[in-house]
Amino acid sequence: MNPNHDWNRGGTWSPPTDAEKPLCPYKPGFTVDIKEHVPPPPFGTGYYPVGDWPYDRVTDAMLRSITQTELVMTNPPRECKPMASSFAPALANLTITEGIAIKDGRGSQLALCRISPKSPGQQPFSAVAKIFDPLYYSFRDKVAPSNPTDVTFDAEVDYCSEAAAYEHLRRGGRTGSFAPSYYGSWTFTLPIRHEGVVRQRQVRMVLIEHINGVCLHGLCWDKQLALRCHESYRLGVLAAILDAYVKLMHAGVEQMDLAPRNVILAPGPQDTSAPQPIPRVVIIDYAWAVVYHRAKEEVKSASWQAGKFPRNPMGYFWNYPLDDFGYWIPSAWDENRRRKQEWLMKEFGGRGKPTTKLCGRSLTSLLHRCLGSEKGSWGHFW
Questions:
Q1: Which helix H or strand E contains 204, and what residues bound it?
Q2: N or C, which end of the chain has less CB nearby within 10 Å?
Q3: What is the pTM of this model?
Q4: What is the CB-side half-sphere exposure of residue 313 using CA atoms within 13 A?
Q5: Torsion of the alpha carbons at 5, 9, 14 and 16, rounded to the nearest 10
Q6: What is the rounded average pLDDT of the residues 217-226?
Q7: Confidence (pLDDT) at 82
Q8: How far, in Å, CA of 312 to CA of 178, rounded?
Q9: Secondary structure class of 159 (helix, strand, coil)
Q10: Is the pLDDT of residue 182 over 90?
């Protein structure tokens, strides 16, 4: 969704009847052959230069005159520039064993899968597939439901951004700890009957580590569950989250959507009010992320990647609101912001003074200001 949205453009609109659109297929038992895929460079969020990959948006008038199936079939995902002739994409079979977040209209689909490589000697493994199928994105704009949105653009922006962030972290050896292990970007084809003919359409996805844990969101907003955990545990988890975030930044990626729904604890908390060990904290969802070295020059200049060590979380989060963490943070922080800052000083003050003048959400604000100079999409929610 563009931040400069004309919320009432063209009057009220509803998605037309779409008899060709099949039901969402990504249920347990779904199986398909997949092929390794090299995505185009990230684009469309306002953080990246247009470069050699301009994207012609579908006009609003056209969006209002066609079905979602017609939109998807006439705007297939783009291909990257030809790879070296020595590049041989890996092949595998994917079978969904469990749905994680599967729903028509939610955007990307998440499913636990069994991946069976077709190369001799490689063993099957489990992974989470994040599937960017525009046919099951919301055709209604989520902010202005009386308007359509270009789902083909939204899905490709999500795919390219997510793949770029994970690939950068994998090459830097930063996946498998505070970011999930990454198993690459892939594509597959699905049949669809369109205009009376059975055709094939391509769908993109990424494969990431299946983390046996719990999403923090459900704990933060259930008062009984949150307060059942000892405060030392809750604050220890929060410290690990803030530390992981600045380590991601130092590795060259700002995730840009730090919220409990994008944090997994592995393992989840024990059912006790006593102190307990701090679990592995994993930050997920990089569809809004910015990869510094690929970004616009003004974004690069504001990054915190430079330096031998990550930035001190105390400096970055000094004025950063943590309201999204609900009951996970002490209620005293709501009454007096200074209490949070005192905790930051106690938790991180021994790391030395921050070395960057920008503080709090300065980079985030700068990045959002960049959106005015590119046709951006803000349509992603995990």
A1: strand 197-208
A2: N
A3: 0.87
A4: 20
A5: -100
A6: 95
A7: 64
A8: 17
A9: helix
A10: yes
CA distance 320 to 317: 5
Question: How far, in Å, CA of 180 to CA of 209, rounded?
Answer: 5
CA angle 309, 312, 318 (to 5 degrees): 160
Whose CA is closest to 156, among 48, 32, 33, 282?
Answer: 48
Residue 112, pLDDT score: 99
Which stretch of 39-43, 64-68, 351-355, 376-380 has the lowest confidence by average pLDDT? 376-380
List the structure tokens of 120.
Answer: 């001799």
Q: First vs last Cα of the chain: how many Å apart?
A: 15
Of the candidates 324, 176, 177, 172, the one whose C-alpha atom is nearest the C-alpha of residue 262 is: 324
Greatest alpha-carbon pair distance for the chain in Å reads 68
CA gap 38, 15 in Å, rounded: 33
Residue bearing tokens 């021994």: 350
- Exposure string of 342-366, with b = 16+ CB inside 10 Å and e = fewer, is ebbeebbeeeeebebebbeeebbeb
Alpha-carbon dihedral sign for residues 235, 237, 241, 244? positive
| pLDDT greater at residue 382 or residue 151 | 151
Helix, strand, coil share (%) of the chain residues, nearest 5? 30, 20, 50
112-153 tens-digit pLDDT: 999 999 999 999 999 999 999 999 999 999 999 999 999 999
316 C-beta neighbours (distance < 10 Å), count: 25
Kindly report the number of other CB atoms within 10 A of residue 297's CB atom: 8
Residue 330 pLDDT > 60, yes or no? yes
CB distance 114 to 92 below 8 Å: no
